[in-house]
Structures are given as structure tokens and as C-alpha cells.
Design brief:
Blueprint (H helix, E strand, L loop, with lengths): L1 E4 L5 E5 L10 E2 L8 E3 L5 E3 L1 E4 L2 E4 L1 H8 L1 H9 L3 H9 L3 H14 L4
Antiparallel strand pairs: 1-2, 1-3, 4-5, 6-7
Length: 109
């Protein structure tokens, strides 16, 4: 497995097949599916860096990866519209059950 790094040793790309990697790439010990994310200011942050030949999370990467459960929960929680309908229909039990099912599916790390 190979990767390329920037001036901060942050991993910018992974290659599963070494032959596909550029000549300047380095050997990495592991490949991760998430290697970068854009923050709310539109700045690209890298999740992993290469240190002594080992892939380790960057500080911003640790925070991003630790909040993965929250991003998944948010995508599946009932919408505001569903919540309003549940309140108007006096069906809060079903709403609470749906939210709990999402929390169970994506527990905090």
C-alpha cells in the first residue's frame, strides 16, 4: 500500500495497488476510507498522517472520526416536519422510539 503526503506529513491519497501510485509515493501500513474532509469554512483537513512509517490520525482527523456517529444519527433522525406532526397527532411515543432506534444503531464511540 502506498500513499502521498504533503509538507505536514498529512496523507493526501492512498493507493491499494502500488503500481498505480506515483513514484514520489511512500509505503503506508494501512488504508483508510476517509482521508480528508471539508470543514465549515471550506478548508480541506486531512484525517491521517504518516509518522515513522505508520498511519496515525491527525488531531483534526481524530475529532472528525470521533463524531462519525453523530453525523450518521443526524441523517436518520426524524425531520422537523415529522416531529411537528408527531406533536400535533399526540404521538410522541413513536417519535421517541424512532430516535432511540437511531441512537441504538449508531452508539457513541
Amino acid at each position: 500500500m502506498k500513499c502521498t503526503i504533503n509538507e505536514n506529513n498529512e496523507i493526501t491519497n492512498f493507493w491499494r495497488i502500488d503500481a498505480n501510485a506515483p513514484e514520489s509515493s511512500l509505503v503506508c501500513d494501512v488504508i483508510h476510507s476517509i482521508h480528508a474532509f471539508e470543514d465549515s469554512d471550506g478548508i480541506l483537513n486531512y484525517c491521517y498522517k504518516l509518522e515513522d512509517g505508520k498511519v496515525i490520525p491527525t488531531n483534526t482527523g481524530k475529532n472528525y472520526l470521533n463524531q462519525e456517529y453523530a453525523r450518521k444519527r443526524q441523517a436518520e433522525y426524524p425531520s422537523i416536519e415529522e416531529c411537528v406532526h408527531a406533536i400535533l397527532d399526540d404521538d410522541l411515543t413513536a417519535l421517541q422510539e424512532k430516535r432511540q432506534a437511531v441512537k441504538t444503531k449508531y452508539p457513541k464511540s
